[in-house]
Amino acid sequence: MKEPVEARVDLDAVRANVALLRERAGGTEVMAMVKAEAYGHGLVETARAALDGGAAWLGVARVAEALRLRAAGISAPVLVAVATRGEPYEDAVAAGVDLTVGSAWLARRVTEAAERSGRAARVHLKVDTGLSRGGATMADWPATVEAALAAQASGHLEVVGLMSHFACADEPGHPSVSRQLTAFREAVEYAEKAGARPRVRHLSNSAATLTLPEARYDLVRPGIAMYGLTPIPQAGTFGLRPAMTLVAELAAVKRVPARSGVSYGHTYVTERETTLGLVPAGYGDGVPRHGSGLLEVLVGGRRRRIAGRVCMDQFVVDLVDDAVPAGDEVLLFGPGDRGEPTAQEWADALGTISYEIVTRIGTRVPRVHTGTAVERTVDG
């Protein structure tokens, strides 16, 4: 290891997961969601792996992410899924990046950007079918469609897609799912009767891709599943393989007497003489501080619970009497092949979701990408 902690990303696993998702979607086109630095896995490398796995589109949250993909030479369709007033829409339009529009005012803002860019903007009109987050409400949908079609008639805008997003697809049988499907169908019918001729209609996230064939439409948008983490833990893994393994090098080992307080606040006190191991990873790297005394890692072939508080740059494990030398590898989480915890297990221990575990791994942790087509290290 070149650094004391690194995130190893198996791009072959990403490819295989995307191929599996495409198969589960019955051949429907796949938009691989690579927002938030590809959920912490590395934006450009992961995007390329997803395209190799059969994805036809890429999805991001910010224009800057889309422009990084274009700068890396990726020409596949890219959708910016989150809309804000301050985004550099002129740059996005000039780069041929698709934009999400969920209001009449944003349709006008994007139209202005297109006029300045001298190129028609590609947009996906978003309707809020029940998540109560982004997108036009059903009441505001007619005005949003009207504004977009007017701009299309003037040649400044092209309505490429119609979209929405599920609230509870990860809870099979939740009544909101059928309500949202009905609302989306009605919104699509309205837009098409008004004159929209979208190339794609889409609302399925990872959970819906895997469990709701009636929600596939023309495109599905898996996120967490392409990284090998299940969107519905109670339903199993669906054959997905986790792509990230977080690894550290044991920095120091020392013997301490009984009743030794460990780390800040002495929330852990040794019961007898024991051996402590120092792991050089902390909340500055994305190891949750509220995992103190809860999370397990694999050291010396055995799982050990974090002893005492997680610090900014390090934490301690109690090795008891095991002879584990400094320099040994510590597996914080991974696919579980060697008995290490998974990101899902960390999430379960903390009462959160695996999305947060992998996405929060910090920028000072190098991403080491491996696979048949790439063997390189990218920092941050």
Structure description:
The structure is a single chain. The chain has eleven helices and 20 strands. 29% of the residues lie in helices and 24% in strands. It is an alpha/beta fold and 380 residues long. The longest helix is centred in the middle third of the chain and has 19 residues, at 175-193. It starts with a strand and ends with a strand. Mean pLDDT is 96; it is low at 375-380. The strands form three sheets. A ten-stranded mixed beta sheet has the order 11-14-17-16-15-18-10-1-19-20. An eight-stranded parallel barrel has the order 2-3-4-5-6-7-8-9, surrounded by six helices.
Briefly characterize the structure.
This protein has helices spanning 11-24, 35-39, 43-52, 63-71, 89-94, 104-117, 141-153, 175-193, 206-211, 343-350, 354-359; strands at residues 5-10, 29-33, 57-60, 78-80, 98-101, 121-126, 157-163, 200-204, 219-220, 244-249, 252-256, 261-262, 268-269, 274-279, 296-299, 302-307, 315-320, 329-333, 367-370, 376-378.
Distance between the termini: 15 Å
**How large, in whole angstroms, is the Cα Rg?**
23 Å
Backbone structural class: alpha/beta
Describe the main β-sheet briefly.
Answer: 10 strands, mixed
Number of strands: 20
Uncertain spans: 375-380
In terms of quaternary structure, what is this? single chain
Q: Portion of residues in helices?
A: 25-40%
Summed up, the helix count is 11
Strand content: 15-25%
Residue-averaged pLDDT: 96
Q: What is the molecular shape?
A: elongated
Strand order of the largest sheet: 11-14-17-16-15-18-10-1-19-20
